[in-house]
Design a protein that fits this description.
Layout (H helix, E strand, L loop, with lengths): L25 H17 L3 E3 L9 E6 L2 E14 L2 E5 L9 E5 L2 E7 L5 E7 L1 H13 L4 H4 L2 E2 L2 H9 L2
Antiparallel strand pairs: 1-2, 2-3, 3-6, 4-5, 5-8, 6-7
Bound molecules: nickel (II) ion.
Length: 160
Amino acid sequence: MALRNIRKGGDAVLRRKAAPVSRFNDQLGVLLDDMVETMNAAEGAGLAAPQIGISRRIIIFRNEDMIVELINPEFTSKQGEIVDLEGCLSCPGVFGEVARPQVVRVKGYDRQGRPLELEGEGFIARVLEHEIDHLDGILFVDKALRLLTAEELQKLHGED
Ligand code: NI
């Protein structure tokens, strides 16, 4: 496994629409292992392949103690709306309020190419939409209702 460099802000790969994965091979396994290691090292809640410079439709996220891998994810439903604070490993030091669905259903594939379907609520629904947005070149700052001010950021970090 290897740590990959996390692409930031204005990097063009973050703005590209990522291509679907067509081969579920060893190379995909290596990429996923690297994504997990990179996300863990950065203490992120989720990571999308474009964030490490790979323009492919692959996301991972943490669900309690488990890491879920999802290839070619697609929403099958979205319900409700919750406004909450979020950030992104590609936008260090920036936090904003974003409206996200309360409950989502997503279908996709695991690393072996087996179909899977999952439901996410609350924080998980937020992470799923945030990560899938990355596959379409969308960053949370594009959708943020407002960004935190320097003063609010200071308070936020003071609470850590
Ligand atoms: Ni992000």
